[in-house]
Amino acid sequence: xxxxxxxxxxxxxxxxxxxxxxxxxxxxxxxxxxxxxxxxxxxxxxxxxxxxxxxxxxxxxxxxxxxxxxxxxxxxxxxxxxxxxxxxxxxxxxxxxxxxxxxxxxxxxxxxxxxxxxxxxxxxxxxxxxxxxxxxxxxxxxxxxxxxxxxxxxxxxxxxxxxxxxxxxxxxxxxxxxxxxxxxxxxxxxxxxxxxxxxxxxxxxxxxxxxxxxxxxxxxxxxxxxxxxxxxxxxxxxxxxxxxxxxxxxxxxxxxxxxxxxxxxxxxxxxxxxxxxxxxxxxxxxxxxxxxxxxxxxxxxxxxxxxxxxxxxxxxxxxxxxxxxxxxxxxxxxxxxxxxxxxxxxxxxxxxxxxxxxxxxxxxxxxxxxxxxxxxxxxxxxxxxxxxxxxxxxxxxxxxxxxxxxxxxxxxxxxxxxxxxxxxxxxxxxxxxxxxxxxxxxxxxxxxxxxxxxxxxxxxxxxxxxxxxxxxxxxxxxxxxxxxxxxxxxxxxxxxxxxxxxxxxxxxxxxxxxxxxxxxxxxxxxxxxxxxxxxxxxxxxxxxxxxxxxxxxxxxxxxxxxxxxxxxxxxxxxxxxxxxxxxxxxxxxxxxxxxxxxxxxxxxxxxxxxxxxxxxxxxxxxxxxxxxxxxxxxxx
Length: 636
Ligand code: FEO
Ligand code: CA
Ligand code: CA
Fold this sequence. Notes:
Helix content is 11%, strand content 27%. By secondary structure, the protein is of the alpha+beta class. The chain has one domain (4-629): TolB, C-terminal domain (Neuraminidase), CATH 2.120.10.30.
């Protein structure tokens, strides 16, 4: 049995909610649909036009290519690689002090609770850079910590003291830091008045329908209006009024209690709340996280949190109107009529895609506080014929008692209306050049799989997860990117059409549907698309968080990577490869688009590698790198 904190989030879901033995994997794969069968079924269902554009993308002639670089090869090296003509340099790393009176990172001890509270957090993910006067303010999520890394100084790789737990806690949250560029290289500005850590201790306002509801009231906050902390923020969003959206993802694993028989309600089970924590130990130093001492704290996490990165004294706002689930990111679109539309994925096997539409409209310089507070929430239904619709999550439609309950028990609401169970929705990104939206469906080992008793595996709410629609592969190992186009190019329309932009796969190992769609070749293959962001040219950057063993089903795919896709031709080229055991996640640009900031998360998470500092004794450290063109040109 692995330590819970060494498990993937999928493995942790199964550990706290055991299912019957899964079927033998080879048998599962033998039952997978062949590529020919998929094409036939798509043709039969009448959506060949939709699939045709992706399975048979038009090759771009050299004259019309929109790629400014030659693709690079896969890598299994402990470094970061970019195409010829580009340079990648580290901007900041886990443990870099934000103030000059804070200690430098200690590779032997990996810091203390106090040093971590004043340093760049761990496992950076989503991020943005905001211009502010003549300053540049970087804000980044610090999603979580890996026990083997943060407590690698301890023999068991487990916390031994309360300060060890506090160190882990303070490694979470957000880091806000001013950055500057000198001689082409970006670095952090120590002691800037904008520097800030938003840790799991910082007070934030609860806004929207769930504010003040009984389920939000705790011993510490009997009014249910002020929560402390944001943690496990994965992807992000950014508003047109210049605020940052941090998205709370796997918030469940921080809650635990000593009594392993502590009752687990259906509502807890749906969100993976269990007496078995994931090994962070927070319940040992803070009663909020002990299920036996506090029964509502977990209802106050799993939201999107809005932060003004340019005001270090501002109080973050938990926007409950955007629902409670394992948020990946929050893609904000200003619709043609001014309504704010937010697209969001719930990253767990068999969970849903969501959309929020504001009641009010955005006007530059006008009131914005209500735009993420008052509106309607929807979940997506994808039909096999290439059509789809957004289903409103109202109390009437879901059978829940109030909008507050819809916003707290959002998964149950989406199950009630029959939304489509998806292959782990990760980042969503909207094309700035066309009314279309893309979402990474990273993988789903449970898709279409039955247990030994012959019962189909479900999501944690009991919803079926059959093969079909935008989730066309059994025991999906490689993932795909789905895209949809709202009717009449109106993001508030409830109707849309969809197709798949790419089915990732391995054509050097498989000849069936596991080879991937026809825009995948041995030269550009990858698995588990996760981070996703359009640049200002309408080109699509794809980041991976997948299997980096480079063996068997993943032979030839190397380390995690970042690729660029042309949404029109379907062409995909590899742009960047990461160091050993890292994930590439988080992406933004300097305002002049001459620097692209890329996140490198959890290098060496399984004990290999020493990136970025190198040498045999250095601790691997999550970092943000800046990618520039050697000729000073634009990078997206
Ligand atoms: Fe934190 Fe869904 O990745
Ligand atoms: Ca992710
Ligand atoms: Ca991920």
